[in-house]
Design goal:
Blueprint lengths: L14 H23 L1 H4 L18 H9 L4 E4 L12 E4 L7 H6 L6 E4 L3 E5 L7 E6 L2 H7 L9 E4 L3 E8 L9 E8 L2 E4 L5 E6 L5 E6 L4 E4 L7 H4 L2 H15 L4 E4 L11 H4 L5 H23 L13 H14 L7 H16 L7 H15 L5 H9 L4 H19 L4
Parallel strand pairs: 1-13, 2-3, 2-13, 3-12
Antiparallel strand pairs: 4-5, 6-9, 7-8, 7-10, 10-11, 11-12
Length: about 425
């Protein structure tokens, strides 16, 4: 018993719709991975903090823009290893009150370092994201314990009451020796009392207290008052000039790197990030192209799913197929020659209009006479006998072919 060949079922979606779903899904997946890898870099950095990406009053974005405008090479360092490239540069650290002292001590650059001490506590402005609405002086002892003592354990912070213009004088033996820098008006000027024997004064205020100190034997500087460099201070032209002169003296022609890792904007290494950066980007693109080609090959090769055929077929064709399969099973194909001959006789007689009230022998004789009259070479009675006496399938097929050809000549079906 045989069943008709299964036909391909029509899917719920068209091929074009499936193609678009695959393309959109693939692109969305790749974009999701890219955004996941670079999410820290895309996060808004203007959060009102005291770092070089902040445009609030206590931020240092204005200083970076000022130096860039003057032609100084400026970079924003998001790595925990700023000297990885081996280039000497001035590293500017702007820690906050919540910065980790151990993280500050671990940031070692190949060039000079400038640590700007914090001074203010700020409250975020809810109406203007990235701004601050209120500034209060941070407790001096909190600055000493949270930031200053990461580098020095004996000196302490002092503040001058009121708001006044500030004149900074260069200490002998420093890069600013003999110079006098006039700054703008500073609120509660913050200075370092001392310093001790491990630190040398570079710039001092009018009272002789140190504003910029240098660690002995190293190019590590500490600036006591951030208002000399931050956005709030650079709003005054005098402070902008003072900041430019101070940074130029410290960097001595080197590039300037502003650290933002202390503010939480570090760029960490990850395998996912490496997949989208050279030289591994080429391998990632090759993998995506290979996946696209595999999908295209699978779609064009297999096509829609096949409809499952029933275990038992139905209809006239199935009945005929089942009967033929049964005959083949019992090996009786050659016995069907007589039946095929009788069918050929009936179809031919009906086509040429022979009388219906004669028996089979008379009809065979009539068909033989009509065949001779039409010039048909073979006689029906001989072909009938050959089909009836067939001993195997090959002999049956030969006899059936002759009967089919004879019927065509008698009825002229092929002309």
């Amino acid at each position: 018993m045989t069943a008709p060949p299964p036909s391909r079922a029509a899917g719920p979606f068209s091929s074009l719709a499936v193609l678009w779903m695959v393309v959109v899904g693939g692109v969305s997946g790749v974009l999701f991975l890219v955004l996941t890898a670079y999410a820290p870099d895309l996060r808004s950095a203007s959060n009102g903090g005291s770092h070089a990406l902040s445009k609030s009053a206590i931020g240092f974005a204005a200083l970076a823009e000022l130096l860039e405008g003057e032609g100084a090479p400026v970079v924003i360092s998001r790595t925990l290893h700023p000297d990885l490239e081996g280039k000497e540069r001035l590293l500017v650290l702007t820690p906050g009150l919540d910065s980790d002292p151990h993280a500050m001590a671990a940031l070692k650059a190949s060039g000079p370092e400038l640590i700007v001490l914090p001074k203010w506590t700020a409250i975020a402005d809810e109406d203007h994201p990235g701004w601050v609405s209120r500034l209060d002086l941070a407790p001096a002892d909190l600055i000493e314990t949270s930031v200053f003592q990461a580098f020095d354990h004996t000196d302490h912070i002092e503040r001058r009451p009121g708001r006044a213009e500030t004149i900074l004088t260069g200490a002998p033996g420093s890069f600013a020796a003999g110079s006098k820098i006039v700054a703008g008006r500073i609120d509660s000027l913050q200075s370092i009392a001392g310093p001790d024997q491990d630190w040398a004064s570079v710039l001092a205020d009018g009272y002789g207290d140190t504003v910029l100190a240098k660690l002995a034997g190293k190019e590590i500087y500490i600036l006591s008052d951030p208002d000399l460099l931050n956005n709030r201070g650079l709003a005054q032209l005098a402070n902008a000039r003072e900041a430019s002169a101070l940074i130029d003296g410290l960097r001595a022609g080197r590039p300037v790197a502003f650290d933002v890792t202390l503010a939480g904007f570090s760029r960490t290494r990850s395998l996912l990030r490496l997949a989208f950066e050279p030289p591994f980007l080429a391998a990632t693109l090759c993998a995506l192209a290979a996946a696209a080609l595999m999908g295209l090959h699978a779609a064009t090769r297999f096509g829609p799913p096949l409809r499952l055929a029933p275990a038992f077929a139905f209809g006239k064709r199935a009945l005929a197929d089942n009967s033929a399969a049964l005959v083949r099973l019992v090996r009786r194909e050659h016995r069907m020659g007589q039946g095929y001959g009788a069918l050929t006789r009936t179809m031919t007689a009906r086509a040429i209009g022979t009388p219906r009230d004669i028996d089979d022998d008379q009809l065979d004789a009539l068909l033989d006479r009509l065949g001779r009259a039409k010039g048909v070479s073979a006689a029906f009675s001989e072909l009938m006998r050959e089909a009836r006496e067939a001993k195997n399938v090959a002999a049956l097929m030969t006899a059936a072919g002759k009967l089919y050809q004879w019927r065509g000549e008698m009825t002229r079906e092929r002309r």
